[in-house]
Amino acid sequence: MIHFNNISVTINQREILKNISCTIESGDFIVIVGPNGAGKSTFFDMISGKRTPTNGTIIFNNTDITYLDEQSRATTISRLFQNPQLNGSASMTVAQNLAMSNYKGKPTQLHDGMKNFPMHVLNNLKKLNLHSKKILETPMKDLSGGQRQLLAFLMATAVPPKLFLLDEPTAALDPASATKLLQFALKWINQHKMTTILITHDPELALTIGTKIWILENGTITKQFNKKDHPHLSATDLIGHIDYNALLQ
């Protein structure tokens, strides 16, 4: 589906990604783990078109998209950020945000979109207890982080993308909200067979979901595991753990 050939990204004379070559197959659910500063978010920036590689090529379904901008890729690649405030337009209402996402890549007027919510969007709002008229008329900025992230997921997948990027989507959420979002997201991703990449710092989450686990360290993918490897792995094998003995000392 998407092939990265010797991809490097240099920012302010520092090489963030170093000669990455890998392939994402259609239907994959890849979980990427790695320490802070490893280049995980830069990897997503490069996939989404927010940042152009310094070297290398990106081939998406046999088409070279290396220099295709972010807006052009948005019709096939969706991204959910870890910070809820980056998802959606803060000053617009929930209904307006949902309307825009429903017509991604298509010409429309905002009031038309608001009159024609697809049935699956309305059903999903009900499942998430976000279907009331009051919530639909509320500006996104006035919602809780959990509510905003749930709605952002609906917006990112209203038109199912060919590739879905989840950039630590639960990092800003409490455990209950994180569980609710992931339960809903996994069902939706499986239902639509969306090719997905998720970044997380949680090795237990990586071992629980996904068909593949990639370890990104110092700007390069150092290890790749398949589902069959999961029973033989521990959290420490992926990214280590907090050294509680050191804290006690």
Topology:
Blueprint: E1 2-11, E2 14-24, E3 29-33, H1 40-48, E4 55-60, E5 63-64, H2 70-73, E6 77-80, H3 94-102, H4 110-115, H5 119-127, H6 133-136, H7 145-157, E7 163-167, H8 175-192, E8 195-199, H9 203-208, E9 212-217, E10 220-226, H10 235-238, H11 244-248
Parallel strand pairs: 3-8, 3-9, 6-7, 7-8
Antiparallel strand pairs: 1-2, 1-4, 4-5, 9-10
Largest beta-sheet characterization: 6 strands, mixed
User: Which runs of at least 5 residues are low in confidence (pLDDT < 50)?
Assistant: none
CATH class identity: Alpha Beta
N- to C-terminal separation? 50 Å
Short description:
This protein has helices at 40-48, 70-73, 94-102, 110-115, 119-127, 133-136, 145-157, 175-192, 203-208, 235-238, 244-248; strands at 2-11, 14-24, 29-33, 55-60, 63-64, 77-80, 163-167, 195-199, 212-217, 220-226.
Description:
Strands 6-7-8-3-9-10 form a 6-stranded mixed beta sheet, with helices on both faces. It has a single domain (2-248), classed as Rossmann fold (3-Layer(aba) Sandwich). With 249 residues, it is of the alpha/beta class. The chain contains 11 helices and 10 strands. It is globular. The mean pLDDT is 83.
